[in-house]
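To whoever picks this up:

The parser on our side crashed when reading a file containing two proteins. I've narrowed it down to the boundary between the first structure block and the second sequence. Both blocks are reproduced below exactly, byte for byte. First block:
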Amino acid sequence: MLIDNVEERLHLKKSGQTFLGILNDIKRRPEDAASELGVTTNEIYSIINGEKLISQDLVEKATRIWPVNSRDFFNIRDDCPLGIKIMTAEESKQSSRVMDRAGKPYYEYRDTAMSTTAPFRPEWIEELCVVENNDPANTIAQWNNGHFLHQFTYFVGNVNFYYEENGIKKVAVMKTGDSMYIAPFTRHTFATRSGSDTNGLILALTYGNKITGDTQQEMLCLPISQGSKFTLDFSTINNSYASLIKFYRKISNLTIEEISKRTGFSKTLIETFENGEKIPSITETKKIAYSLGINIRDLLPNDKIENKVIIKKHEDTSSWYYPENKKSYKFLELASTTTLPDSKAFEVEVFDSNDENLDLKVGLHQYVYNIGNTQISINWEHDGVKHSKIFKPNDSCCIKPFTSHNFRGTGKLLILRIGGNLTGDSQRELSFIGEDNVKRAISETVQWFDSHGKH
């Protein structure tokens, strides 16, 4: 069916580009695809040119014939077409649901801003359970089993944060402005402390990082015994170096003797590195990396071994003004982990300014929540068009990477920034390919070769 709606046409155009990219990757011309799928060449060109969607029947045929998955043909739905998506406090309230634990109301959950284009899964959670003491073994506190997503939490009011570390139950006594990070599958729970005027509240911002999506799908294709082998021993710096050296040596079937020949190091020295008895120097790491045909950075582990729970008290936060010459904002740095270098959280104080300059633009996904008592305005530009919205207390929003924007008025915000799939190694690969070529990765418009020839 041909579709005339403008937004649908844009979706069709992107779908056609995705289909052309698949054909290029598996080296099929449109006429090859038509023959193998049992349709006319005109049908294939109609899909490529964005005139019609590929049918489910064709997708099913393609997945039976070609080494592709159904999901490869479908683009994610972009519910943030203007660069910023806002969820009002009233819309959040409408999503309210109370969850019981041990037969009693324990949490009230509310959704806040989420987008199909960003990996945030943020929640507003009121702690309905009240505890009389700070005992980590308090039986009133009902623990969860941990969950797959990373979690940053901002605290409002008097909340006890219960968590497990190395099998030991602990409790952190938190108050407004405190924050924490917990790693996936860390058991935890929250409760209001007795004597509080109101129930405690948390903004629990859960999010995926590099092992969601396609990575998780790839793991699901392996038996647990094999998939789990991808986890190296990063318990200490020594073990981290040892694990990385062994992994890269074994994927090339290189022997210790061969590495010894290539580096000039004794076999005994290399064995001490692989056994975790000694950490190689930078010079030694460089020689080993080159002998393995990789970059030095591939053998460098995290230089900090951090706990899976990181707590930061509000009084311990660092703060600064931004921009330097205008001082429109005051940033306070909240809890974070060096394991996720492109995950940053801030409490931001917004000062009244008449400057119309869009002074904020970062290459990360952003989640923003108005934690203050006043409304402010959020102003931004997307695809050459300027927009402005009122951002009221308890409103929240998602902002796409590299969207120029600002906040104006007087108020206070919570901001969480994360990299999604395009930072880290993905960003390095894109940088290696180059900006002009990456444009084709985003929007493929040409066949991989010219049938008329090209010199």
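<<boundary where parser fails>>
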Amino acid sequence: MKSHTHQPARYLAIVLGLCAMIVVAAIAAAQAPASDAPATAVNQHGPTIKDAYAKSFLIGMAGDIPGGYSDIELGLVKDNFTIVTPENCMKPAPVHPEENTWHFERPDALVKWCEENHIAVHGHTLVWHGQTNNWFFAGGDKAKVTERLKNHITTLVGHFKGKIRSWDVVNEAINDRGNDQTAQTENLRNSQWLQNMGPEFLTLAFKFAHEADPDAHLYYNDYNIETGAKHGSSMVLLKRLIKEGAPIYGVGIQGHWNTATVPFEAIDKAISDYESLGLKVSISELDLTIRGASGGQLGQPGRGRGAATRPAARPATPASPQDLKTQADAYARLFGIFLKHKNNIERVTFWGLSDRRTWRAGQNPLIFDASNQRKPAYVAIVDEALHPKP
């Protein structure tokens, strides 16, 4: 028979050993790198972005609402945004797939929902090289193609006359590739519109849209026009449109950037350059990716295929606290630039609603996370308006 005389001492030793292990683990956790720590909690109930910028410019999102969106997501739209851009349903192919066929059901539902919730609508887009069916160009006769363009614009803009605040009339007409020489020219993309109608298709498109709704604000919209040769070409193009009497109101800088390479100084200068032409500016498709490529070209995954109209097919790669801070700092600096030019900026629109509804799947580009929660970027943007830095 074994003696139990020394059992209490043994238990005490075990307890002391466990306590020591807990203390060591706590010290190790406290000394762990910040990137391994959980993200800082974000206040989900502070001032809203739309209220913070109410006296500066409109705050928007893109999506083919309300169909397919949850009540929570629609609540986010109502609580945080003052203008909506239909991401796909007003583009030529979805809304006008054949010459005598129109699909107005989804655009009508979007406009009706926005009217009921006192949210403005920005129409997107009337003329584009992408998502435009070939029937527009069948036959190759300039007069016939011009007639089809006029009918498309007159019917679509006229259908929503008085209900849509502004339109992207021509989208992405400038060639991506450029150099110092092309920067002195318009360097237009060799689209079917250019092939069939020549450079005047842009001026005519603006005139047709203005005739259909004289009160709508009309925009030229493009990506990467804030820097380099493409910016130079945009200035040449816009000067020509103004000279030819195109009723152009403003220019949309899309703003598909990466947090590591945002061209802050070029953006500031580009806005000033457009202001010098007497044009308003909108940041029309804003997102800041944490990883991956930037730019807005059609060939990138999800571009123009309605990625933000439905949840992302694959889960996003988790963002570290440092990722989120870098993104927040970049967004804050951008909005500081926008506030500097607030008298000439009409609208800042995020391209999507959340990191779950974005064409940049897996790149965490927006101000709401995949669970519809505010991210540090949201707080930083609001803080930039409420407590502007010198």
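After patching the parser it read the second block fine. The chain has twelve helices and nine strands. Residues 85 and 283 are 12 Å apart (CA to CA).
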